[in-house]
Fold this protein.
Amino acid sequence: MMRPRALALGILVATAVGCADSVIRELGPGNAETVVSGADSLTYLASNLENVSDRVSFEWTNSEPRLQVNHQSFIPHGYGLLVIRDAVGAVVDSTLLEYQLETESRAGVPGVWSVTLIYAAAWGRAQFSLVPLPADAVPEVSTDKRRARR
Amino acid sequence: MPLVLVSPVAAQAQRATDSLVTIGLTTEAPHLRFSASSPATAAMPHFDEPDSLLPCPQCYPKTHFWVAVAELVALQVIPNAFSRITSDAEWAKVSLNSWGNNLTLPWQWDNNNFKNNQFSHPYHGAMYFNAARTNGYNFWKSAPWSFVGSLTWELFGEVWAPAPNDLLNTTLGGITLGEMLYRVSSLTLKNESHGFERVAREVTAGLLNPVRGFNRVVRGEAWEVSRTPPDWRPSTVFGSVDAGYRRFSESSNLSGASALDQVFLSAELRYGSETFDLGKRPFSFFQVQGALASNNGNAGRLTELMVRGGLAAKPLGGDSGQRQLALFMTYSYINNPVIAFGAQGFSGGPVWNIQPSHGPSIHVEALGTAMPIAAIRSDYYLTAEGRDYDYGIGLGGGGSALLVWKGTGVFGATARYVFVPVISGFPGTHQILTTNVGGRVYWKGRLGIGAEWVRLWSWNIYYGRTNVNRNASELRLYLSTAVPRWGAS
């Protein structure tokens, strides 16, 4: 006789646990978001992400036609997307925020570039740096350079 | 074998031979002797009484549940701890918090590269499977261990979100590779042997199946002289090694800028008799085929690994073995510059083995295929982490016909089709049709030459992007050696 009640209670508990942290959050003070922009690099950090869905953009002056992205993010749940546009608005890179990875952008027009981050139910840490690359640098975008995450 | 740019003719070169060939294993296991006693039973292996009075403690192995559990845990803790200690990997720093997140947050398809997801994960699953299989459990009782091992790793072994592709590849691929490795390592072992031969056999078996090697050392079985269990030996066994040249091209005539030349080395093992063993225990009959290739680009040296093991069969009509309704479990890994395809699946349908009194024997099969998970190279999906393929389920089928002239040669033709609606990756669908014809001729039963001509058409439909159709071809020319000699009787 107690089985239906126990089952209902179990479902209630499971639902409560499953929905316990379904609140969609935007970036806030708890994420300690920092952007350090300089002539020779840009670094970005936002930590303690817990179910963050948000979109942030900023500008950075790139004196070279390309850049290298040093990924150091760790987002085990959800996604972070990095979109970089050159001085005329052309997309030169669009990539997920990755864990321990180096990639390079396509060539674009030097000048004021825009960096856009899109978070989708992201948990963990967003962290990367951008370094200008001259046009004649040897491209490194190959699977040999990619590191498996596990 | 569900897909192509493989060597289906080579793969089937011996498919029908088991109904013709009896292969003596007397040099491997003295207590097993096969003989052909009459024309009617010429193809049936017969087991003589063992001529050894050695005890056989491994004939009826005891189950060791807690040892198996401990090994399953070790197979998770060791790689986790290794990554944590050697590279301070954040993904390995599991905690109650990460377990809670993995239990409550959504699963995500992961973006590992092709080899990692389609080979390494199934291999790890094979070790989970063998934690049970080498502790006394049979095939069916070992199969859930691949699932449990994979599930616990996804939930508790790493911080990353659990991935459905990992669970499916590790579980199903682990079962297929696991049973294959268990049986191949059994074939390598010989409990009656001594000295250098014994060491070589034990080391080889340990390399093929590390969990088994560990257990044999711990239990003292690695040096204990006893009888080799009869079920460690198939009714027939056949191996072949091919070496040669192949040329790919994304054209119908092997020309054009995309043409690529490779040197390849492939090996095949055909274990058991498709005619007589399909209806016995799972994988009493299986085929495994692997190939290494030069000049294979980012795909790496391993260009092909295909396993097909019999799960069950039912005779059709009164003639035992000649007409059967068969069910197979399959593992597919093909990675070359033209195509990447990996899948875990099942295939089933009628299989005919016809042995006329004169002329070649005939093998015909028509199998439907269902793949719970299939990975296929995408034209648009590419992540920085290295994933360049789409995931979906695979549905299709195919047929093949093979003519075998005993001791002389084989000629065959195959056609396969698979449809893969994309579940994860770039939205769309993939369809692949492959055909191949080929043959091989042996002289003196052991050395041979072969050739195959393969055609591939693929239709890749992408929502919102330009569709991509392919028309590719492949030619293989090779030398072959058969072990034991092909057509031996």
Notes: Chain B has two domains: 8-22+236-483, 65-190+192-225. Confidence is low (pLDDT under 50) at residues 1-49 of chain B.
